[in-house]
Amino acid sequence: MAVMLKSLQEISRLRQAGRIVAETYEALRPYVVPGMNTVELDKIAEDFIRSKGATPVYKGYGARPARSGYPAIPAFPATICVAINDVICHGFPGAQQYLQEGDIIGIDVGVRYNGWVGDSCVTFAVGEVDSEACALLDAAKRCMELGIEQARSGNRLGDIGAAIQMYAESHGFSTVRELCGHGVGRSIHEDPTYSHVGPAKIGLKLRPGMVFTVEPMLNAGKPDIRVHADQWTVSTADGSRSAQFEHTIAITDGEPEILTQL
Ligand code: MF3
Ligand code: CO
């Protein structure tokens, strides 16, 4: 598959989808508190998205039959992906899962509006969190911002990963390798796919009209991952906590445009 460059009109459609993603976080934010149930959060997100005439992208996505050596993967069952503490990403909301004071929770939201997709992730602190969690959240957000700063015409995908990896490791955190940034368009996952680590100056050269995510995941401990038996939930292999921030961005002639913010 090739990287599809988006026209200005297509980017304006992607902007509308991205705006609904950003608004969904504003709808969720007051409910990200101790005692809240994650299936309830999922319902708030789904109701909000549908009230805007959009649809959740993840719900029903990604089913695959078993193939030699690999188990079947069920469709993702929910509107939001939930990642509490040592979960890195792609966790399911759970009827028995309640937020507790001191947790960190990553909430990933994807919507489709008029055929175009927006994809974002925010990690929230639940009530008061300890100093390591604060530092991890700050660093993960900063890594996303530094990655986005590198997303300029003429730079390469490796420049994004290098900026992220450098900042994460210099703050005592590690960067997940296996889960990647990806192109976004009519589909949630398009080319290019790239890892949030360096080296700089390698990889695809960025050009105006490219639209993709910057979505670093930082672990407090080692970078290694573990995939759960549900085939979706990814957590840290060492049980350390993990935090993620993600925006969908467009490459322009100048500053990158963040499509999933208000
Ligand atoms: N932002 C995540 C990703 O790009 C969310 C995907 S959830 C899935 O992988 F259900 F679409 F897989
Ligand atoms: Co994504």
From TrEMBL:
One of its GO terms (biological process) is proteolysis. GO terms for molecular function: initiator methionyl aminopeptidase activity; metal ion binding; metalloaminopeptidase activity. Its EC number is 3.4.11.18. Its cofactor is Co(2+); Zn(2+); Mn(2+); Fe(2+). GO terms for cellular component: cytosol. Gene3D superfamilies: Creatinase/methionine aminopeptidase superfamily. Keywords: Aminopeptidase, Hydrolase, Metal-binding, Protease. It is an enzyme of class 3 (hydrolase). Binds 2 divalent metal cations per subunit. Has a high-affinity and a low affinity metal-binding site. The true nature of the physiological cofactor is under debate. The enzyme is active with cobalt, zinc, manganese or divalent iron ions. Most likely, methionine aminopeptidases function as mononuclear Fe(2+)-metalloproteases under physiological conditions, and the catalytically relevant metal-binding site has been assigned to the histidine-containing high-affinity site. Substrate binds at residues 90, 189. The keyword Lipid metabolism does not apply. InterPro entries: Creatinase/aminopeptidase-like (IPR036005), Pept_M24 (IPR000994), Pept_M24_MAP (IPR001714), Pept_M24A_MAP1 (IPR002467). It catalyses: Release of N-terminal amino acids, preferentially methionine, from peptides and arylamides. It comes from the Bacteria. Pfam families: Peptidase_M24. A divalent metal cation 1 binds at residues 108, 119, 246. Monomer. Belongs to the peptidase M24A family. Methionine aminopeptidase type 1 subfamily. NCBIfam families: met_pdase_I. Removes the N-terminal methionine from nascent proteins. The N-terminal methionine is often cleaved when the second residue in the primary sequence is small and uncharged (Met-Ala-, Cys, Gly, Pro, Ser, Thr, or Val). Requires deformylation of the N(alpha)-formylated initiator methionine before it can be hydrolyzed. This is Methionine aminopeptidase.
